[in-house]
Amino acid sequence: MAKSSPDKDGGGVADGGINAGINASGGSVNAGGPANPVAYRGAVNGGDGIDGASVNAIDAKKMPLVDHIEELRWTLIRCGCAVILCAVPCGVYWRRIFDFAALWPLRLSDPAPKIIYTAPAEAVMLSVKIALACGAVAASPFIFWQVWRFVSPGLYKNERAVILPAVAASTLCFLAGIAFCYCVLPTVLKFLTGFSQGQIDPYFRIDEYISFLMKMCLAFGAAFELPVAAFVLSKMGVIDHKFLIRYFRYAVVAIFIAAALLTPPDVLSQIFLAMPLLVLYALSILIAFLARRGRGGGA
Questions:
Q1: Is residue 110 within 8 Å of residue 198, measured between CB atoms?
Q2: Cα separation, 238 vs 93, whole angstroms
Q3: How far from chain centre, in Å, is Cα 29?
Q4: Given 60, 116, 127, 235, which is the most exposed site by the fewest CB atoms within 10 A?
Q5: CA–CA distance, 284 with 245 (Å, rounded to integer)
Q6: Residues 193 and 111 sit within 8 Å (Cβ to Cβ)
């Protein structure tokens, strides 16, 4: 007796119809999981209107790991070229920059420290370091733009809308952090140089002194990015103001630990970094609240 076999062509049509129905609904067959992880995340985030077309657009942008690494390489190359391009004029006027960047913070110090160098090529390397540091500051808008541009393919369309405001806010907050650092540096250096007044004469090696200034500026600039991070994460639905309030006690401990690690081993500079961070954390709570209300998340 001949065994009956299913019609292959007919089965293919039926399977194609089923797959078309699944694709049209934006779903996929996952055992024990949501029908569509992307649509599920959209539902959790308050229903941001992520439909099947958005899902397919996101799937179309998926890249293998090698392509991500290649994109990261070109991002770093572009940022490096921008820093070098901005460093050229800074290198031409490095002496004027040195007079302000290195000597101005010492204006309140008593006794006034004497800046020395102990290696033949140290003065040459000083000019290069000043040029690159100032070039990085001047190129910071482009660098922040490249960073956000690199992470944007992993965001939804509504989340990518915050990239341009985030770039502008990141640049302004970073520069504000550096400006605030230079406002408190004279007081910090006055305390440090006057601690052993009359017993030890202060002599600063230029390489160590410039590294100290760069470390302080980078610490304050990074600390002032806290409100921007709170805004972006709130817009993405990762955190909200309730989360920041709930973990406020832990944040205070983390802030003082970070201030101790990022500043010299003296109490004054740690307090000068920790106090603005606490204020910025409180500001981040307000920003997260307003960002969630803007997403329609309510209070």
A1: no
A2: 45
A3: 37
A4: 60
A5: 10
A6: yes
> Could you tell me the pTM of the whole model?
0.70
Retrieve residue 91's tokens: 């290198």
Sign of CA dihedral 43, 40, 148, 152: negative
Locus of tokens 């820093």: 83
Q: In the Cβ-directed half-sphere of 135, how many Cα atoms lie within 13 Å?
A: 22
- In tens, the pLDDT along 119-150 reads 888 889 999 999 999 999 999 999 999 988 88
